[in-house]
Amino acid sequence: MAVPLIDIKAQYLELKGEIDKALKEVLEESNFILRERVSQFETELARYCDTRYAIGVASGTDALVLVLDAWGISEGDEVITSPFTFFATAEAIMRVGAKPVFVDIDRSTFNIRPEAIETAITMRTKAIIPVHLFGQVADMDTVKEIAQTNNLLVLEDACQAIGSTYKGKKTGSLGDAAAFSFFPTKNLGGAGDGGAVTTNDEKLAEELKILRVHGSKKKYFHEKLGYNSRLDALQAVILSVKIKKLDEWNEKRRWLARLYKKGLKELPIELPGEAGYAYHVYHLYVVRVPEGKRNELKAFLSARGIGCGVYYPLPLHLQNACKRYGYSSGSLPEAERASEEALALPMFPQMTESQAGEVLETVRSFYKVR
Ligand SMILES: *Cc1c(COP(=O)(O)O)cnc(C)c1O
């Protein structure tokens, strides 16, 4: 039995009736851009994240870019973030003209090490972007304490971690603002691109609402240079249907993680750590395969129809696109080691116990353990 890394269609089939009906309604209304359906979803998202505001935008990447832009971060500024994340986190910093400053990660959680942030702060540092990687919230109290002491803004990259909590508080509500992505593979995914910012800051919320429509408050009157970056009504209604399922789906992911933990515990691989403060929502289930065996295990699983993937094969400080910042190999050892050892196993809410069993059996047979 083949098991995919993720099965997006299964998610649609579970909610087909409701999604089809909602899409049909939007097509019949034909109000596609920034109308009631979008504000309805924004209200639901803000309620879900325990924030005052949620502002839909065109993607998670745009959510990051628009916040940095609204904060006036630009040429000459520095923003501290993780080197072990999807490229968009650093891309957003570079897009507004600022410099990404990478600090190393924690071995067990793959998230930024707050102790490393302090030594990276300079006169030019304006903000920190902690990434809640693979579905687990970063160590936010420590990040915020450092930010407060040094007068820095905190933008959560929560693209992989909607529903994850820190000491019971939802991602999205933990910094000055947060970016979410509704890319189809994310824990809350649409049928295309989409994203949102959450915040409690009324001024920032107003600014983002202007930025996303060409810098205008009133049609054809432009306050500033903006963007065309909106969440559309078709995506919004799909997300409104799915957000009602999100907690149940995240619980399913956690249940699968427990099955994996039980089935993998005697093998010579490291399982993802759950920090005491975190409710992990397992966007991806990423193990570490040491001793140069990662690619071998990956090929073994792929040959047997078990989906798996490497997140991420090259840390951001070593990307060609980041060459000008002058990082060399060996400068952020934990991120570099993670790139060599990380392997994601199948994880999606509709996965069955027998599919999980198939994954476990195949991994165990690689290690010749029954
Ligand atoms: C997916 C993702 C993004 C970008 O989101 P898009 O909607 O694809 O633009 C940013 N950061 C992280 C950590 C992500 O996983």
Structural account:
The chain is of the alpha/beta class and 370 residues long. It is 39% helix and 14% strand. The chain is built from 13 helices and 14 strands. The chain has helices at 8-14, 16-29, 36-49, 60-70, 88-95, 114-120, 140-149, 202-211, 233-243, 246-264, 294-303, 333-341, 353-366, and strands spanning 53-57, 78-81, 99-102, 125-129, 153-157, 165-166, 169-170, 177-181, 195-199, 216-218, 221-222, 278-279, 285-288, 342-345. Strand 4 (125-129), helix 7 and strand 5 (153-157) form a beta-alpha-beta unit. The longest helix is centred in the last third of the chain and has 19 residues, at 246-264. The two termini are 18 Å apart. The relative contact order is 0.17. The structure holds pyridoxal-5'-phosphate.
As residue ranges, the low-confidence spans are none
- What is the CA-based Rg, rounded? 21 Å
Task: Note the gap between the termini.
Answer: 18 Å
Number of helices: 13
* Share of helical residues: 25-40%
The total of beta strands comes to: 14
Largest sheet: 7 strands, mixed
Proportion of residues in β-strands: 5-15%
The helix-strand sequence is: HHHEHEHEHEHEEEEEHEEHHEEHHEH
Q: Supply the helix-strand structural class.
A: alpha/beta
Small molecules in complex: pyridoxal-5'-phosphate
Average pLDDT works out at 97
What order do the strands of the largest sheet run in, or round the barrel if closed?
1-9-8-5-4-2-3
Question: What gross morphology would you assign?
Answer: globular
What is the gist of this entry?
With 370 residues, this protein is of the alpha/beta class.
